[in-house]
Design brief:
Helix content is 8%, strand content 43%. It has 251 residues and is mainly beta. Strands 15-14-17-18-19 form a 5-stranded antiparallel β-sheet, with no helix packed on it.
């Protein structure tokens, strides 16, 4: 920062020139806590002692940082502190690879289930969508990892999401009733039974040879909802009945 003699002065050869140098100042004040994040405990201890501080308590917790690396400190970096202050450290134990128990996601909303998967440290795969017999739209109806099973963190879980309830197929039911042959014009005749119901028209018995002497018979027909039953001897309708397949009534 200075010299003697001054620049431009005339001096004899061999004259001694005195130079004054400026000592470089540290960028970190001796009263400021250094940043220890990312260091090992041994490196942190060395840094702290260089500034007149020391290591306080050391606790550990699981983290994505490698085992033994400092996650955080207290007091924080760049905090002014008196000489001798102890700095507490939190050190990584590495990733937590212990298996967890899978929770039941079935019946949850898709968004709620996704949040739960994230909370557990799992990954959500591409969801599958299909109709359900039980669950309404946007509800989880299946999960790829069964509830209660152990599973490692980072495992991908695929959810099957309901697109809505399946339309219920009308139930086919049977009813039985008795046919009297009294109206037959001939001793031998051809019997037909025609059923009209919610599904259309069917002919469960068609031109079947029958005998008046038998008197009657009980037959059973199947269908859905409400409709009619026609009894035909030869080509004549001799009786028409109303039928309710849901209740089993024939009248």
């Amino acid at each position: 920062v200075g010299q003697n003699p001054q620049a431009g002065s005339k001096v004899k050869e061999g004259h001694i020139v005195t130079i004054n140098l400026n000592k470089e100042r540290s960028t970190v004040s001796a009263k400021t806590i250094p940043n220890l994040s990312g260091k090992t405990v041994d490196d942190a201890r060395y840094s702290l002692e260089a500034y007149g501080y020391s290591v306080g308590s050391v606790t550990t917790e699981f983290d994505d940082l490698p085992e033994g690396i400092i996650i955080s400190q207290s007091p924080a970096a760049n905090t002014e502190a008196e000489e001798g202050t102890k700095v507490n450290l939190v050190v990584s134990k590495g990733k937590d690879n212990a298996p967890i128990t899978m929770v039941n996601l079935v019946g949850m909303d898709a968004s709620t289930a996704a949040s739960e998967i994230s909370r557990l440290g799992l990954k959500l795969g591409d969801s599958v969508y299909e109709e359900s017999d039980t669950y309404e739209t946007n509800k989880v109806i299946h999960q790829s990892v069964t509830a209660g099973d152990p599973v490692e963190k980072g495992t991908t879980v695929v959810l099957t999401i309901s697109t809505g309830l399946k339309p219920k197929e009308p139930e086919i039911k049977s009813v039985a009733f008795e046919i009297s042959y009294d109206a037959a014009q001939n001793e031998m005749f051809f019997l037909s039974v025609v059923v009209s119901d919610a599904t259309g028209v069917t002919t469960p018995i068609k031109q079947r040879e029958s005998y008046k002497i038998d008197g009657s018979e009980v037959i059973s027909v199947s269908g859905q909802g409400q409709g009619t039953i026609q009894i035909i001897f030869d080509n004549d309708v001799v009786q028409q009945l109303n039928v309710n397949f849901d209740t089993g009534e024939v009248y």
